[in-house]
């Protein structure tokens, strides 16, 4: 059976390190501050926000909230957003997306200061990921994959990495982060021919296809590290499942992340780590 790469030990280690960083910032007169901007009362937003609030308390990051009604106008939204976007005491902004269709998301994205974009949404942040500079930040889930590998001593250097999925949220940025870590990276997508054959050659397989249990043992080899970033509600199971069919894949690989309990638990820690880095910058 594969080694199970759980996210909790990674998150715990990050929390301990971040508390020290937050304390050091305060000693130097800097109050690390995150502002959550939310429109409406979507259940998934509220659930994630609750987790962020808990993490802020654990780390020692000051939290502000800008809560706007579902029917907010573009003018009113931009006025509220620009207030925190231009506030030097706010180091990071978490903007819940997608925004209502009544709002122009592209216009908002262009307004957003990449230096405060702690979840890698803006063009500036993505440019920073591709150029390997400190402009903005990588999307949190993509960075969480790297944090997990680092914690478990899995060095991508010289390894063959295959990423299944090419979204701007996970697939493409995690491919670039792995490349910056000196892996040789292949990105597979819906037009790739014979994905299982390509995936089977990987030392590190990152599954971000967005299709529940689509990755089976035919994609794997016995020396492979499998990182599953998918998250879906499994009606048959009555719980969460990933892109990987865990029960079928785990007996055939060296190590694997579970869902739940894997990468997902690290993402809010990465979010707070980005706030602290923004404050340090």
Uncertain stretches: none
What's the number of structural domains?
2
Overall shape:
globular
Sequence of strands across the biggest β-sheet: 1-11-8-7-5-6
**Could you state the CATH homologous superfamily of the largest domain?**
NAD(P)-binding Rossmann-like Domain
- The rounded distance between the terminal residues' Cα atoms is 44 Å
- The class by helix and strand makeup works out as alpha/beta
Tell me about this structure.
The model has no long low-confidence stretch (mean pLDDT 96). The longest helix has 20 residues, at 8-27. The protein is 41% helix and 16% strand. The protein has two domains: 29-121, Leucine Dehydrogenase, chain A, domain 1 (Rossmann fold); 140-265, NAD(P)-binding Rossmann-like Domain (Rossmann fold). The strands form three sheets. The chain has a six-stranded parallel β-sheet. The protein has 281 residues and is an alpha/beta fold. α6 packs across α7. 44% of the residues are buried.
